[in-house]
């Protein structure tokens, strides 16, 4: 990618206005351009028919216009889930998922090509981090999918490959453009950012005056056990994470979702459930239990139904708001970064 050229789709209206005036255009051109990119979801500059051919040429020569190429899509006959593989300008591959719920259409996007957090159960961590995604590359996953299904997207979860809080500035710009009224205007409350627990960035996000939902990947209620699953736990302990989550809740009024993946024989016992209930007792939060998606390189297995139910029951009896994640697209490719990985091989 030509990094020295201005990258149009990551600019906000203010930056875009400065850009067009520099090229001798009237400021209103910026708004036109912005609407073409973020409202009409133009995949190319040539679609922008009310902008002069001459200025379109200038844009094409002087700027980078980010548009993802759809490399592959898998459709689930069972529930309408669609799993997309996109190619970036530099050849990197990322995956995104479209899901239909009663509450609306949801897109799960990747925040990085690869990931450097190194969680032991995760396919995305196996080959490390390639690079951060640009704000435009985060947006494009939503835009291309919305156009492909020809339906409105109401929810976005930043829960695909990568650690969003490890790509903090681009994430913020993404939220600004995605939720702004001249774009898709998605409600901030319908945007969920999932993190493995980078405490200083959680505190930063709490101070941004946003109302996005925070999901915290907990996976263990015991510090030692968490360290064995997630290397980030060595850096930020459970106590500090929970304190940061409490701060996030107080600042934003948004209830935290704790993600807890169940790994057979590792964190799925009744003691584990009781420990989790103790850790979260009295907190205004929500626990989402995720029976693990087995990754063949990782050797983690999914607990049987009874174990999952018993774990769920224990939390519920303790008065904790808990759900079991419904498995979507079970008839298409396995989950969490495995499509991208298989393709790269
Ligand atoms: N880095 C962020 C977001 C991406 S991972 C985070 O850690 O939250 C999204 C979620 O999928 C996390 O909760 C992650 O722990 C979980 N996950 C990763 N691999 C998984 C697997 N094999 N089975 C089930 N959940 C998995």
Separation of the first and last Cα atoms: 23 Å
**H/E series:** HHHEEEEEEHEHEHEHHHEHEHEH
Q: Count up the helices.
A: 12
Give the mean pLDDT: 94
Low-confidence stretches: none
Instruction: Give me the count of strands.
Output: 12
The description of the largest β-sheet is: 10 strands, mixed
**Shape call:** globular
Fraction in beta strands: 15-25%
Structural class: alpha/beta
The oligomeric status of these chains comes to: single chain
Helix content: 25-40%
User: If strands are numbered along the chain, what order do they take across the biggest sheet?
Assistant: 1-2-3-4-7-8-9-10-11-12
Radius of gyration: 21 Å
- Which ligands occur here? S-adenosyl-L-homocysteine
């Amino acid at each position: 990618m030509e990094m020295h050229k201005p990258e149009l789709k990551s600019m906000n209206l203010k930056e875009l206005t400065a850009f067009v005036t520099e090229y001798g255009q009237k400021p209103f051109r910026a708004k036109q351009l912005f609407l073409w990119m973020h409202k009409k979801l133009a995949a190319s500059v040539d679609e922008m028919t009310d902008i002069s051919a001459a200025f379109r040429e200038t844009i094409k020569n002087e700027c980078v216009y980010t548009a993802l190429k759809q490399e592959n899509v898998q459709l689930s006959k069972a529930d309408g889930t669609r799993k997309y593989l996109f190619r970036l300008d530099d050849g990197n591959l990322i995956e995104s998922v479209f899901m239909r719920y009663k509450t609306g259409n949801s897109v799960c996007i990747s925040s990085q090509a690869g990931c450097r957090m190194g969680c032991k159960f995760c396919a995305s961590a196996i080959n490390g981090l390639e690079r951060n995604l640009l704000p435009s590359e985060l947006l494009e996953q939503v835009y291309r999918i919305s156009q492909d299904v020809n339906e409105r997207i109401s929810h976005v979860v930043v829960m695909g490959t990568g650690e969003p809080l490890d790509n903090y500035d681009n994430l913020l710009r993404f939220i600004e453009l995605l939720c702004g009224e001249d774009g898709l205007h998605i409600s901030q409350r319908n945007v969920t950012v999932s993190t493995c627990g980078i405490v200083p960035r959680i505190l930063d996000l709490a101070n941004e005056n946003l109302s996005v939902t925070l999901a915290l990947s907990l996976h263990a209620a015991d510090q030692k056990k968490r360290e064995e699953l997630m290397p980030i736990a060595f850096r930020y302990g459970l106590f500090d994470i929970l304190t940061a989550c409490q701060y996030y809740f107080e600042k934003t009024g948004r209830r935290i979702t704790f993600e807890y993946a169940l790994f057979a024989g590792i964190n799925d016992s009744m003691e584990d459930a009781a420990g989790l209930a103790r850790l979260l007792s009295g907190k205004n939060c929500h626990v989402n239990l995720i029976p693990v998606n087995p990754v063949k390189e990782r050797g983690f297995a999914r607990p049987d139904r009874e174990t999952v139910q018993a774990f769920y029951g224990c939390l519920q009896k303790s008065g904790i708001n808990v759900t079991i994640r419904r498995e979507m697209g079970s008839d298409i490719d396995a989950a969490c970064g495995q499509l991208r990985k298989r393709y790269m091989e």
